[in-house]
Amino acid sequence: MKLYLLAVLVLLSSCAFFKKHESHQEKVYPLLTSDNLKQAGFPQYDTKKIQMVLKREGTLGGGTYEIKAFPITKTYLQALTNELSNERGLNKKQSLKIKKEYYNKYVKNKICFSFTYAATRFEKVKYLKAWDLELDYDKVNKKLKFTKADLRKEPVQSQRRIGNDVLEQWNNTAIACTKSYISLNKEFHLKVTPAFVQFPFDSDVVLKWEFDHYVVNEKGEQVKVESSNSSYQPYRGW
């Protein structure tokens, strides 16, 4: 009887996970491509919920470096504007002014990503200039550049315990952009390459956005193209 109940609990837990997995998958495309939250179908979404769907994470050097990134979309900027407007009590005109500024800075004629790293032990990669980002979209590679303001930022220094050792760790968050705009309406990857990775680990890591998207066929009909990776897992936080 106990074994039966355990099996039922495991089954229910698995079903809950896959339901959550599926719900995140379905939200990626509209949040990436829509002009606003209402069009995407999530008018009440805030920046945290959007990040839960769009953020990807990875590690390098056997966990020595931890990274995460997400694309800055129109939907994300609207949520950010809403939050800032509520915090500061801005009127409609002021909110629109901020929204336009964000759009010109992070969307117009470019694609931008928010990028965060936590580097342990190796000072060679503590500064932002030691990190290289490259967007791979539809077999076209585009280098991303960090803003000058972010390149001048000092990383936040802390400590991390690994086993019996207490090691130095450096953390930083920045914005990196391409020089031209791309509509991220199909799967894409972001390759992250630090200046140094200890031997024998890989020198880079690839963050993948693999999701169901849509194309127009010869008849002018919109056809769904399923994700190439059925094992996709959404960001769950550090």
Overview of this protein structure:
The protein is an alpha+beta fold and 238 residues long. The protein has one domain (2-225). The protein is 33% helix and 32% strand. The chain is built from 6 helices and 11 strands. The chain has helices at 2-33, 37-40, 47-54, 74-88, 92-106, 148-151, and strands at residues 56-60, 65-71, 112-120, 131-137, 140-146, 156-162, 165-177, 188-194, 205-209, 213-216, 222-225. Strands 1, 2, 3, 4, 5, 6, 7, 8 and 9 form a 9-stranded antiparallel beta sheet that branches. The protein has a two-stranded antiparallel ribbon with strand order 10-11. Strand 10 and strand 11 form a beta hairpin. Residues 2-22 and 230-238 have low confidence and may be disordered.
Q: Keyphrases for this structure?
A:
32% strand; disordered N terminus; 238 residues; 9-stranded antiparallel beta sheet; 6 helices; alpha+beta
Q: Return the domain count.
A: 1
Let me know the largest β-sheet. 9 strands, antiparallel
How much helical structure, as a percent, in the residues?
25-40%
Strand content: 25-35%
List the helices and strands and how they pair.
Elements: H1 2-33, H2 37-40, H3 47-54, E1 56-60, E2 65-71, H4 74-88, H5 92-106, E3 112-120, E4 131-137, E5 140-146, H6 148-151, E6 156-162, E7 165-177, E8 188-194, E9 205-209, E10 213-216, E11 222-225
Antiparallel strand pairs: 1-2, 2-3, 3-7, 4-5, 4-8, 5-7, 6-7, 8-9, 10-11
